[in-house]
């Protein structure tokens, strides 16, 4: 599913491109005719990231965090400020209220999920604190998480623009996915199984390479800088997920 859902989204974008409509970013399609496909694919991806029981525990944790941010990427579109400004007072307030309810529900469900996971699930946080590398990533991740929630409350509730929320969620989403890849690229500090290290490291460094590539495109004033960066990162994570499927498939077959 974590390969087919992005593939569905890219297929819809490709079909739309043949009609002459090419946006500057994947998230910009939120405001177009494939809005439902974009939101559905992102929410489905978020659910898959959360329900998947990753190994090592550090991978499971980072994928859960990535799933959390993916929900915000789905629900808070890019260019929302301009869209809200184009609406009348009543329609604008209705859109803001609907978004606030959705975001509030996401935060509430997240809190319930964490409490239930701690009470009835396989609570792996103590294990993360035993390793120096995972401990510090855990601390930094939570600091950014708290800062992000504060940012959402300020931009979406104290203010009503939600400006910057989509971008912040997207950056933290990609960082979390890269951390999940790192758990296999460097198994000793992160507790990974130690299989396919070279391939995982290749994917990780290619994900990092997306940053200078984006900077070059930005310097060239390309209108598709964000689109290329998003597609690059999603493609590489899909490659990572194919490797994960191959790694876990024998175990799943044996247990069945």
Number of domains: 1
Number of helices: 11
Radius of gyration over all CA atoms, rounded: 19 Å
The percent range for helix content is over 70%
Oligomer: single chain
Write the H/E string, N to C: HHHHHHHHHHH
Give a quick account of the main beta sheet: strands, pairing sense, barrel closure.
none
- Overall shape: it is globular
Spatial gap, N to C terminus:
20 Å
Strand content: under 5%
The poorly predicted ranges are 252-256
Which class best fits the helix and strand makeup?
A: mainly alpha
Count of extended strands: 0
Question: Mean of the pLDDT scores?
Answer: 85
Question: What attributes does this structure have?
Answer:
single chain, 256 residues, mainly alpha, disordered C terminus
Written description of the protein model:
By secondary structure, this protein is mainly α. It has one domain (4-251). 77% of the residues lie in helices and 0% in strands. The chain is built from 11 helices and no strands. The chain has helices at 4-17, 35-51, 57-75, 80-85, 89-120, 125-128, 132-158, 165-185, 187-190, 197-219, 225-255. Helix 2 (35-51) packs antiparallel against helix 3 (57-75), helix 3 (57-75) packs antiparallel against helix 5 and helix 10 (197-219) runs antiparallel to helix 11. The relative contact order is 0.12.
């Amino acid at each position: 599913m974590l390969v087919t859902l992005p593939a569905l989204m890219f297929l819809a974008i490709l079909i739309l491109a043949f009609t002459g409509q090419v946006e500057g970013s994947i998230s910009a399609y939120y405001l177009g005719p494939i809005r439902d496909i974009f939101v559905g694919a992102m929410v489905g991806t978020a659910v898959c990231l959360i329900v998947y029981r990753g190994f090592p525990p550090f991978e499971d944790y980072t994928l859960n965090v990535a799933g959390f941010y993916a929900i915000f990427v789905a629900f808070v579109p890019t260019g929302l400020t301009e869209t809200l400004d184009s609406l009348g007072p009543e329609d604008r307030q209705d859109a803001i209220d609907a978004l606030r309810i959705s975001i509030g529900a996401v935060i509430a469900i997240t809190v319930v999920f964490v409490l239930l996971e701690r009470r009835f699930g396989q609570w792996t946080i103590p294990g993360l604190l035993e390793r120096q590398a995972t401990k510090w990533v855990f601390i930094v991740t939570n600091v950014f998480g708290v800062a992000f929630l504060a940012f959402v409350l300020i931009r979406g509730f104290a203010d009503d623009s939600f400006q910057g929320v989509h971008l912040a969620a997207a950056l933290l989403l990609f960082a979390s996915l890269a951390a999940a890849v790192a758990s296999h690229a460097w198994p000793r500090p992160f507790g990974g199984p130690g299989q396919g290290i070279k391939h995982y490291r290749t994917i990780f460094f290619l994900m990092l390479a997306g940053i200078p590539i984006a900077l070059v495109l930005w310097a060239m004033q390309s209108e598709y800088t964000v689109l290329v960066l998003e597609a690059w990162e999603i493609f590489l994570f899909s490659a990572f997920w194919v490797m994960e499927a191959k790694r876990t498939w024998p175990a799943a077959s044996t247990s069945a």
